[in-house]
Design a protein that fits this description.
The protein is α+β, with helices and mostly antiparallel strands. The protein has a single domain, classed as Porin (Beta Barrel), CATH 2.40.160. The protein contains six helices and twelve strands. Helix 2 runs antiparallel to helix 5.
Length: 290
């Protein structure tokens, strides 16, 4: 359990949300936060499932990859039960399978792999050349824009958030125009966090579900927040390459190489300010016009 004493309140609330109640050795229960979407936010389920899996792994092993499927919409008003299968505890790796259950049915499943720290070969892709976060504006859209958004979305922007964001490309929430399928966004936690690598990776998993699927829609000019699209994550994968801190500015660089068959595919790379590639993500999601 993370110590939330003295932590920034919005961040402490999120950290507590990702902590679970242990019901049995391999059985956990979590609750949800309403962020204005019609279902439980996918990043929340990712983060909680990772908490459940990590609670069954010996100290010194941290998650290096996860592969997940979103099966059904989660009910914000009901608890979620996480059932963990201890698939492997080997010399260097541990593998876990997690099933999330609500109302007697699976809503999500995930496989995650954990690894001890080892040294080896090093190479990486280069970080895109983008403006520094301090040179970009952030925060909620202007009041005149907020008034045109659906009530749940407006409520989300008006509430305090556990992360700060700085978008490199302007986001037009009311009159979107077709644009190349690329987006870069700086983000960081709203306050300082303890030195707990698994905590930072759980929070990154939570945040990684933001913006990805929207990137696949950029060439087509639709806008989920305006209500003319149905969008939902289908699957999500992550790889954690290097130690990271989400309370420092990180760059989420996303691109979508393909959309077809009412599905969009997007890739994401997470870089530190000094250019280290910390994590990669991939997601396919449903995109339908209403």
């Amino acid at each position: 359990m993370a110590d939330c004493a003295g932590m920034e309140p919005r961040l402490a609330e999120l950290v507590r949300l990702l902590e679970l109640e242990r019901l049995e050795d391999n059985l956990f229960r979590g609750h949800s936060r309403d962020i204005g979407s019609p279902q439980v936010f996918g990043g929340q389920v990712l983060g909680q499932a990772l908490s459940a899996a990590g609670a069954t792994v010996e100290e010194g092993r941290v998650v290096h990859s996860l592969h997940a499927y979103f099966l059904r919409r989660g009910d914000v008003n009901a608890p979620i039960v996480y059932d963990v299968d201890r698939s492997l505890d080997g010399h260097s790796f541990s593998n876990r399978r997690v099933v999330a259950i609500q109302h007697g049915r699976q809503i999500f499943n995930m496989a995650a792999s954990f690894h001890i720290a080892e040294s080896g070969f090093e190479h990486q892709s280069q970080m895109p050349q983008v403006p520094a976060p301090e040179t970009l504006s952030g925060g909620a859209p202007p009041a005149q824009v907020l008034e045109k958004l659906p009530a749940p979305v407006k409520r989300f922007f008006e509430s305090s958030q556990p992360f700060e964001f700085r978008a490199v490309q302007e986001i037009n929430y009311t009159e979107p125009r077709a644009a190349p399928p690329e987006r870069q966004i700086w983000f960081r936690a709203a306050g300082a966090l303890p030195d707990d690598e698994m905590l930072h990776r759980r929070l990154l998993a939570y945040l990684s579900d933001c913006f990805l699927l929207e990137t696949a829609n950029l060439p087509h000019g639709g806008q989920f927040m305006r209500g003319d699209l149905v969008m939902a994550s289908i699957d999500h994968a992550m790889w954690f390459h290097r130690p990271l801190r989400v309370d420092d500015w990180l760059l989420y660089a996303m691109d979508s190489p393909s959309a077809s068959g009412a599905r969009g595919f997007t890739r994401g790379s997470v870089f530190s300010r000094d250019g280290r590639l910390l994590a990669s993500a991939g997601q396919e999601g449903l995109i339908r016009r209403r």
